[in-house]
Design a protein that fits this description.
- The protein contains seven helices and three strands, in the order H-H-E-H-H-E-E-H-H-H.
- It is mostly helical.
- Strand 2 (66-69) and strand 3 (75-78) form a beta hairpin.
- The radius of gyration is 21 Å and the shape is flat.
- The termini are far apart.
Length: 172
């Protein structure tokens, strides 16, 4: 993306990868895919040839970034486990054990507040139909936030355990 495009805001909605090379556009198309797609479908989104998309998808499959599903046609999907692993590593490398523990504690407190507010243990247990129509949108937003907090706590806890494990093994 050009510097001018960055300064002026997001690229046009119909061309989100404008100014990027083919490899980046294929990567972006995979990241935005909600379900397994053929190389031709990804190529269309990435504005490149199917052969070029296949080349880059093969590279990303070798790295574990995408999962290749054999069949006719072959389909590719984003490997969410790879991105979770990457996020945990980023958290572990960018934070101390104490910082990670503090964040886990903050997130645990937020989860407890949601549990108290809704009188259930998880957002999945909330019956949105029990609320006034004026409040439904707010409840849906809070439930989404609650689910995000649960996921963030899980990732921060994994990163904390990773740092503790790497620190412990370096002192032996």
């Amino acid at each position: 993306m050009t510097d001018d495009a960055r300064r002026d805001g997001s690229p046009p909605f119909d061309r989100p990868f404008e100014g990027e090379d083919t490899k980046q556009r294929v990567y972006g198309a995979v990241l935005h895919a909600r379900e397994p797609m053929t190389a031709a479908e990804i190529a269309k989104r990435a504005d490149c040839s199917a052969e070029s998309a296949r080349t880059h998808l093969s590279f990303y499959a070798d790295l574990g970034i995408v999962i290749r599903h054999e069949g006719r046609p072959v389909r590719y999907e984003r490997n969410d486990d790879y991105f979770e692993w990457r996020r945990v590593n980023e958290l572990a490398q960018g934070n101390t054990v104490d910082e990670l523990q503090a964040r886990v504690s903050e997130l645990t407190d937020q989860i407890a507040e949601y549990r108290d507010d809704y009188d259930v243990d998880s957002p999945a247990e909330v019956d949105v139909l029990e609320f006034d129509a004026e409040r439904v949108d707010e409840v849906y937003t809070e439930l989404g936030d609650w689910a995000t907090v649960i996921e963030e706590r899980r990732l921060h806890e994994r990163a904390r355990r990773k740092v503790v494990g790497s620190t412990a093994s370096s002192h032996t």
